[in-house]
Amino acid sequence: MSTAELGISLAEMIRHSYVDIISCTGANLEEDLFNLVAHDHYVRMPNYRDLTPEDEQALVERGLNRVTDTCIPEEEAFRRLEKPLLEEWQRADQSGERFFPHEFLYRLIRSGVLEEHYQIDPKDSWLAAAAERDLPIVVPGWEDSTSGNIFTAHCLKGDVKNVHTVRTGIEYMMVLADWYTANSGGTGIGFFQIGGGIAGDFPICVVPMLEQDVERPTPLWSYFCQISDSTTSYGSYSGAAPNEKITWGKLGPDTPKFLIESDATIVAPLMFQYVLETAVRRA
User: Fold this and answer.
1) What are the pLDDT digits (tens) for 69-86?
2) Are strands 137-138 and 64-67 parallel, antiparallel or unpaired?
3) 53-81: string of b/e by CB count within 10 Å (b at 16+)?
4) 3 state SS of 183
5) Please, what is the Cα angle at 28 between 24 and 29, to 5 degrees?
6) Can you give the pTM of this predicted structure?
7) Cα 180–Cα 183–Cα 185 angle in degrees, nearest 5
8) Could you give the C-alpha distances from 180 to 109, 122, 169, 208, in angstroms and in order?
9) CA-based, 20 to 30 A from 78: which of 38, 106, 130, 149?
10) Above 80 in pLDDT, residue 120?
């Protein structure tokens, strides 16, 4: 979603306080920043469905990593971010500090070290907007991302001594539990999911975890809406119908539930724009 430039609309939602917390994959976290510093070097592949294995090999030999119809440039994106990010990791490592993955990226943005490389207006970066608000973010499975792999490599090489310099997914869940407990009173908290996978399953589980495992009375999510083009099927989280979440203690029988079966790269910006325009009309 970040490579599809969701930041153009999501950043406005963040700035207007329509988003209170974000759960995203490590890829979506870093790819918004890649787009910020390497946008002009991206290569579009509108015929991506027709690419042969040989075509794909030719892309990797050019240093291009494909995300559906868009190729991210290795040198201008990954390696441009690696040096300043390693400096942040080492600074924290040497001082005995520990931060979450998104906090390290917030520190990079706030330091201004990347500004000379900006290739889009930072107002179109959702991560820059989130950094301005110090928005809470949880990033389950960050280790699976490019920057997670790079961090692992520098730990293996001894450049970072303490592997726990980057805080863990369990700690993310603990922070999320405290945040949900503090904010779920009153009208409650709605869950708006774009796509599927770990970035959706991880945060929605905070409710049954608190209720069933911590044994702390906890309000259910106040609504659930998902945009997904995954084939609806039981046993697949991305394709699970919302009602399945009732059996896991995430939603209730009367919880408003919506499933939009479409391409999220098209639908999410349209929904965000509707929210923003509706707010303007009401004002």
Assistant:
1) 999 999 999 999 999 999
2) unpaired
3) eeeeeeeeeebbbbbeebbbbbebbbebb
4) helix
5) 80
6) 0.93
7) 110
8) 27, 29, 16, 12
9) 130
10) yes
